[in-house]
Amino acid sequence: MNMDGSMRPRLSSLGDFQFGAVATETIEDALLHLAQQNEQAVQAAGGRMGSFRETRIVEFIFLLSEQWCLEKSVSYQAVEILERFMVKQAENICRQATIQLRGNEKTESQNWRALKEQLFNKFILRLVSCVQLASKLSFHYKIISNITVLNFLQALGYLYTKEELLESELDVLKSLNFQINLPTPLAYVEMLLEVLGYNGCLVPATQLHATCLTLLDLVYLLHEPIYESLLRASIENSTPSQLQGEKFISVKEDFMLLAVGIIAASAFIQNHECWSQVVEHLQSITGIASESIAEFSYAILTHSVGANTPGRQQPVPPHLAARALKAAASSNT
């Protein structure tokens, strides 16, 4: 039910999602484009990226998206928009702090604190703006109106005007140079499932899709512990150094790696006898080592079902943290 007591419309059924309806050539082009985007994102990863995929923030966005009957893709998009916006804001505050060291410390310190307070006080507004912007990217579904947003904020005790709401959206857009239509891990998962279907995967893509969505939610909600366990496995050390953690940021931003891990884990849950075949297909499609795929799926399964997970064939190769994604291979074997 909605906050006003009215019934919410049903979300589109997962069964409505269709695979095998797109021409092979189109899939090949789209997969290559995603691979190129992913490689650029991995190479550009660094600094504070990933700092705002915190469990409580992700959970808030997921619950809000469910309340507003938005597609799963919208919730993932909102998380990524907010993450990038907040990283930009944090970097701006740090730049201001650096400038203060050279200027009037008392005056500049007050300005710096004011920036931090403004960021904190407007966080919920920014979060909701990111969800609203993400809904506008999903033009084939539904867009969240300003009235709906204002009513929600008022129910939480935040009184904003329509003008302030529009200004907030514009602030997010300007901060990100209007580049908000970014690929999410779900785009990679669904593209790879499409290719697996054409390659003759024994586990049906539609069957894997629902499980993949559940596990992707889980990875978002348990982002830090899952990647921490992956980092420890990759360096074979239970106490990673700060430098090792910083170098591992590129792995956290590798959506292709995340997608193959999600699909492999889903395949193990659905039909563990076909797991090895699925991993081989994923390696052939993406160029990611089967050991890396196995290790990621192991980390996901350990934090989800926690039992009878696929055997760890061997440690993740040392180059995992610095791996540059290879160009995607042809979608047909």
Automatic annotation (TrEMBL):
GO cellular component labels:
site of double-strand break
Concerning InterPro entries, the annotation shows: Cyclin-like_sf
GO BP term, pick one: regulation of meiotic cell cycle
Q: Which CDD domains match?
A: CYCLIN_CNTD1 (cd20541)
The record's section on SUPFAM superfamilies has: Cyclin-like
Protein name (record)? Cyclin N-terminal domain containing 1
Q: Which gene encodes it?
A: CNTD1
